[in-house]
């Protein structure tokens, strides 16, 4: 009887330890997304293509500014905006930078965030590319063709808008949902007819594999970029959010005055030639403004279209995604 009790106790102890080890392994597997426990942390989600934030991280100016307040900055890298906003939705990041479509999809999925600032229009920073020797020369010729792009990203909106301009309905082409690296691989081997992509990947494909721009976003989309904050974080830490935006603004000013130096610093981080990066940098404005009603109205047009195409499950109001004391 005593041995049985001891054995049961031992098994329970072992199972408890195994559970603890498994839990520890899960936490260790995603250290960038761990929640702050002992001290205040600011968790920023970014993409490698988000050059302003990448340079802000590299220069360490935000860390220096917030250290005096006892705030530790943690950075988490994501492949694209939709993945970043999934993390924001589950509370793994507090602040991030994404294109115009990901917030629409995230808000429809119940993500509780607010628009904190936006970059003025940068339509040349994205396009639909076709292979150099492709017979396709017009948007209308994309009817029935395979187009690769990251689902729910800003190029999703670009594809919708450009095809509409070319007289091609959303049901009249074949979307191939791929992240940038996989999309480029499919594009290079001829598995897709076109590729909708943003800079610096756009400039890299043009320079490295002679991809041809079929149509950019110019005159069709704004291609705004947004800084978003988790609502609860913004409500409690507006001074911190303001500090981030001030430092981002300074970084943007530095980039505009130092394109070549910025490109040289980004090259080893983004794994691209400085010339490619500089071309991409010049397609962005690096000028950021507080979110206002006009830009929210423009976001609403995207939201309404996504709902009509059944790309999101419910209607949303983009004006709901602001702090109560904001416009």
The gist of it:
Helix content is 47%, strand content 18%.
Explain what you see.
- This protein has helices at 2-29, 51-59, 61-67, 81-89, 102-108, 154-165, 180-188, 201-209, 231-236, 238-257, 259-270, 274-283, 293-308; strands at 41-47, 72-78, 95-99, 113-119, 126-130, 146-149, 174-177, 194-198, 212-216, 225-230, 288-290.
- With 327 residues, it is of the alpha/beta class.
- Strands 2-1-3-10-4-11 form a six-stranded mixed beta sheet, with helices on both faces. A five-stranded mixed beta sheet has the order 7-6-8-5-9, with helices on both faces.
- The longest helix has 28 residues, at 2-29.
- The chain is globular.
- The model is unreliable at 1-38 (pLDDT under 50).
Order of strands in the sheet with most strands = 2-1-3-10-4-11
Helix content: 40-55%
Strand content of the residues, in percent?
A: 15-25%
Overall, the morphology is: globular
What are the segments in which pLDDT stays under 50 over at least 5 consecutive residues?
A: 1-38
Describe the biggest sheet? 6 strands, mixed
Query: How many extended strands?
Result: 11
How large is the radius of gyration? 22 Å
Number of helices: 13
SS content category: alpha/beta
| N to C succession of SSEs | HEHHEHEHEEEHEHEHEEHHHHEH
Cα distance spanning the termini: 72 Å
Overall average residue pLDDT: 88
